[in-house]
Hints:
Elements: H1 19-34, E1 39-42, E2 46-53, E3 56-63, E4 74-78, E5 81-82, H2 97-100, H3 108-121, E6 125-126, H4 190-199, H5 201-209, H6 212-237, H7 239-276, H8 279-305, H9 311-342
Antiparallel strand pairs: 1-2, 2-3, 3-4, 5-6
Helix pairs in contact: 1-3, 4-5, 8-9
GO biological process, one term: ubiquitin-dependent protein catabolic process via the multivesicular body sorting pathway
Subcellular location: Late endosome membrane
Pfam families: Mod_r (PF07200)
Amino acid sequence: MNWLFPLSKGSGSLPPLNSLQQQRQRQIESLKSAHPSLAEIQKDVEYRIPFTVNNSTISVNILLPPQFPQEKPVVSVYPPVGHHLVDSNNGTMITSPLISNFGMHSDLGKVIQSLLDEFWKSPPALMSAGPAGFSYSMYKPSGMAPYPAQSFHYAPTPMPHPGADGAHGPPRAPAPYGLISDLPLPVPTVDSQLSDMSENEDVLLEFFVSLPQLKQVTTDKEELVTNIVDMAKKNLQMEPQLEGKRQEMLYKYEQLTQMKQAFETKMQRQHELSESCSLSTLQARLKVAAHQAEEESEETAENFLEGRTDIDEFLTSFMEKRTLCHSRRAKEEKLQQSINTHGQFPTSH
């Protein structure tokens, strides 16, 4: 058990921790990091976490056995409470599956946090001190001892004789067991008040009207109606501005539609021009024009051979057509070289 307690100053250096001790320390560090309000009762053995719910402070106690985390921790609460995660026999031992199924690979910090989250979602109820669910000391006047918790019958106490001195006279016999002789005259009980209310509707209605909760509901309702009316008035005041913005938006939308149509038309025109100005299209046109010039030159030569044109006209026309044909063929070949080198649409540098 040396690893549970710090060594004295003269005992030398601490021995190295084994695997179980290292896992124990990791679980404790996880618990400390997950809960800043953790209180250390006994180092590496017992810890306590206070938390407040429903104006009551409850402490969660975590006790780590010697073989922890091979052995599951013992988690309890104080004072005793009623909860579905707490043993109903004593109201202190937590019987959650997270604790029952705790193993080597569990995370103690997350397990305790899950228990606290469950307590927040479903607050535990403090166990009552009396059979009726509350303590008599909450209602007894100052200086009056509590009476036994059983049925009582009221009997008036006989008044002393006017001439008798209570301080020096003979002592009175003790009141029989079960009688309340030191209480004042009976006052209307809650049951009698409820009976009167049930029989008199006016009293019942007056009681409900005087409830602070009902007054608060009425006040909240009036404030809510006032806020709704103010908001409606502000909305009506903003209606002309909203209508103006609506008309402006419709005008802008119409402009957008027209600009979109114009843009699509220009994009179509740009696509057509791009197609007509591509190198392959220009090459095809040059090829057709060169073939046309070649045919015209051959037709001129045939006319000359058949004697339909003189030699001067033939030389002028034939040389012009053949020159144009060769020029177009040269341009076509140059475009083909450019297409092979740069593609259909060469980039400008």
